[in-house]
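Priority: medium. Attachment 1 of 2:
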């Protein structure tokens, strides 16, 4: 499975695509709806795994033969993780007549001279399309124009929403984990009440008992953090291997996770540790 696009030679300039070998189809190929195409790197690897030269070979798309006249330079994946090399380019007239059997163009790609002129370009395109479609003043546009900036803002909005969702899930997980740490520390204080009383009776101060149990709470929390980082790294590696999505583990995220684990341990371990530090030594030694 792959994707075939019906385009003009200008498409390569607009999308910053370069021909690696061979040549792009000509205007004559477009007028005659010639069955020629250019292949992306992924398609070449799938169809010619032994390293054969695809130029001059014939490939079939839905039983329709296309002669390969060129190959495209690899571009890798885009910001959404989609493979930009899994593509076949052919004259748009060929796709309209021989593949889709339609007599109209489904979409147009345009490029502004620079980023600052994007809004002006959109206004000019809107004016041209309204004139071509013979729309009267006040009539609703029967077309839609999307810019890269709009798509980028949409992606950022989706990304921010996912970040908030994951933060909420992480917050709930920390709360549940913190309550678990607090319960464990309560049990530990209860079971070691006589030990605490004995330590106090031979000179241990309340701050010493407090620090002891806080350190235990932090160790429990950080141990969970270590396990979480290892599992997360393995899961990211599996996603990269199975789904071929680009994955990058930042050092700051690992450091931040350990900081959060430490803070969680101190926060939820403070009350049990404070309770242990405030025990009366005599009553603690008598505790059964």
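Attachment 2 of 2:
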């Amino acid at each position: 499975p792959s994707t075939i696009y019906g385009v003009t030679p200008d498409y390569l300039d607009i999308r910053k695509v370069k021909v690696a070998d061979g040549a792009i189809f000509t205007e004559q190929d477009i007028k005659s709806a010639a069955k020629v195409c250019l292949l992306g790197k992924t398609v070449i690897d799938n169809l010619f795994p032994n390293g054969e030269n695809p130029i001059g070979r014939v490939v079939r798309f839905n039983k329709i033969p296309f002669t390969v006249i060129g190959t495209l330079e690899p571009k890798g994946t885009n910001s959404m993780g989609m493979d930009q090399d899994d593509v076949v380019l052919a004259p748009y007239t060929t796709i309209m007549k021989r593949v889709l059997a339609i007599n109209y163009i489904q979409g147009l790609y345009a490029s502004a001279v620079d980023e600052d002129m994007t809004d002006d370009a959109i206004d000019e395109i809107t004016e041209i399309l309204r004139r071509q479609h013979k729309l009267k003043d006040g009539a609703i546009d029967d077309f839609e124009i999307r810019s890269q900036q709009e798509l980028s803002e949409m992606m950022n909005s989706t990304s921010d929403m996912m970040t908030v969702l994951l933060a909420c899930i992480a917050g709930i997980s920390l709360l549940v984990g913190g309550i678990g740490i607090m319960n464990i520390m309560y049990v530990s204080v209860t079971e070691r009440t006589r030990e605490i009383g004995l330590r106090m009776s031979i000179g241990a101060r309340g701050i010493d008992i407090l620090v002891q149990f806080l350190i235990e709470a932090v160790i429990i929390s950080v141990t969970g953090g270590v396990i979480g980082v290892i599992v997360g790294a393995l899961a990211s590696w599996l996603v990269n291997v199975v789904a071929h999505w680009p994955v990058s583990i930042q050092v700051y995220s690992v450091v931040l996770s350990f900081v959060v684990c430490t803070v969680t341990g101190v926060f939820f371990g403070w009350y049990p540790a404070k309770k242990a530090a405030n025990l009366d030594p005599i009553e603690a030694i008598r505790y059964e």
